[in-house]
Amino acid sequence: VEPTISLLRSVEKTSRMKVTGLINNTNLMQYTELPLIKKGEQLVEGIAAQTRLPIIFNSVVEEFSGEAQSQLHHPVLPLHLYMLRPWE
After folding, report:
1. pTM here?
2. How far apart are CA 74 and CA 83, in angstroms?
3. In terms of C-beta density within 10 A (0-12 exposed, 13-18 middle, 19 or more buried), how is residue 11 classed?
4. pLDDT tens across 19-68, in order?
5. Which of 23, 39, 45, 60 is the most buried (most CB within 10 A)?
């Protein structure tokens, strides 16, 4: 939590903008599993508790966004992969 808050404050200082909300973007698209996203949500909850910033959503690959919504505490933003990597 502390290194992430330090990075957040550094970004705010450098950009001269304030962070107004947090997003759990702990995913590797089609290589992500729900336990990884749940772990990321726990980290974001710890950051939110210390910074008093709201958690906006969890970004989740759309194939299991329904399952994720039932297991996570915050809203889910389904992600769809539009661009393929050169090797795909």
Report:
1. 0.83
2. 27
3. exposed
4. 999 999 987 767 788 899 999 999 999 999 999 999 999 998 888 888 88
5. 60
